[in-house]
Amino acid sequence: MSAAPRLKSVPSLCIYGSMYDQENHALRESRGNMKLYQAPVSRYGSMHSKFAFLFYETGVRIAIFTNNWINEPFLTNGVYIQDFPRKGDKFAKTTTFEEELVKYLRKVGGPLGGSAGKMESYFPNQNLPSNIEESIRKLPPSKTISLPASLTKAQRHAAHKLCENLKFVHETSREGPQKNCLVVTNPGSATKNLSPPPMSHDSTPTVPAASVSYIEMIRNFDFSRANAILIASVPGKYKTEEHRWGQSALRHHLQDVPHLENSKVLCQFSSFGGTTQKHVEELTEAFSTTSDPTSTSPSIVEANSIIVWPSLENVLVSYAGLRSGHAIPAQLKNVLTEGGEKNSFILKESIAKHLHLWRSGGDSDRTLAAPHIKSFTRFSEDGQLSYFLLASHNFSKSAWGQIQLKGKQLSMESYELGVFFKPSLFFESDDETGEDENECFSCTPTHPKLGLFGFVNTKKLRYPKAAVKLFSDASVSGACPEGTLLCPVPYALPPQKYGQGDVPWCSDFSHANKRSFAMPQVTHPCP
């Protein structure tokens, strides 16, 4: 809170998974107007998503990032920021980005859009089952529906609140076959947007009143400008064929991505979980999915999969030294096995052939900022990318899910959120022509960095299909033709493979005494 003191005066909501007692007490003591909500997770899961929604009078700012809400040392992180205006009179349809965001918020629950958690009393209208809410929301003008008489008192109250927000007529039937049913009627005019929240003159972000849910607020904005696809994970067990969450959703979005010749899949993350051969193969296969089924054969995946993970040397020479290693957890047993002599180890065979060093593309300063970013991509020798994913997900089963029941079920433990970019997202469609498409938008147009002339893109990017190509920003010099999109990749492409003298970073090293620290001797099983 000391880094952003204005959060104390602006009504805000903080969602977390778990905190140490000391952190919990400190936040509660200093929170000001901030409400706290603990997302429900199991003992093995976490609320690992990192995001912020800032509501303004003119629009909403969506920020999805990889850094935590703490004062971390100098680390490399990534952030996606995009502003979205309110829906105008000519635009009332929903978009895939909006539906994916709403779907995720429902799973997080509590004040964000579900019935779970400790704060549901603040937003009672979210007790309503999603299918009933959807039937009310999509009710055509001059039409009527009857809700089940079996609704609980809390659900009836939620339905009343929703109808009031939508300006729908609603009353309980007292006779006939619909006795005790709540009857809802759309009076005939198109659903109006909710009134904007009260704003101060300096456009300070705010949150909705208790009678308006965050989902209601989100649905007021035009997400047709979105330059990314959301990929999320939520705790639970799901059918893989539904392509809803985790690696199942990832595979679905990669199915139409053409195979890039002479390319490799790169996975870069900041926490090394289980590294069994099966786990590594399952996730690298997911990231290798393309429109060409032969590209995911085991031999091709194994030969063309890269894991970028910092070496002990990377951490030692970083800006914060061993202290930065605390933000890059990896138990020694997940990366190394003990050798026959003291301080000697053998690199685990399941990851040895994949490991590459953390090194920026010509920017030595970035190399010295240890990586807390999580990113995944497929690249060719000339720096072209077939996709790029910036996410909170690490290389773990709890984040991406574990395939079970012979491929029919996906089980996950954690909440995660990421943004996915692929060339087809930027294709211009027949209904996306006109001058309005080139208009820029920012919630803070005069801000030097986040305004119309700052470094954040404020335009909807759509180009003719044949022109769209995605490249690493370090691989292209000079002016780019229209439709060539540059992606800020934080490491050199191709990265450098671990050599026999390179030792992968393990958290156990951060507890070593600097004065008596002896460099471990690591044997690589692969040439």
TrEMBL record:
GO biological process assignments: DNA repair
Transmembrane parts of this sequence: none
InterPro entries: R3H_dom_sf, Tdp1
GO molecular function: 3'-tyrosyl-DNA phosphodiesterase activity; double-stranded DNA binding; exonuclease activity; single-stranded DNA binding
A Pfam family this chain is assigned to: Tyr-DNA_phospho
Stretch forming the signal peptide: none
Subcellular location: Nucleus
Residues bound to substrate: 50, 374
Catalytic residues of the enzyme: 48, 372
Tagged with keyword Cell membrane: no
Top-level division of the source organism's lineage: Eukaryota
Site (Interaction with DNA): 396
Record-given protein name: Tyrosyl-DNA phosphodiesterase 1
Annotated source species: Triparma verrucosa
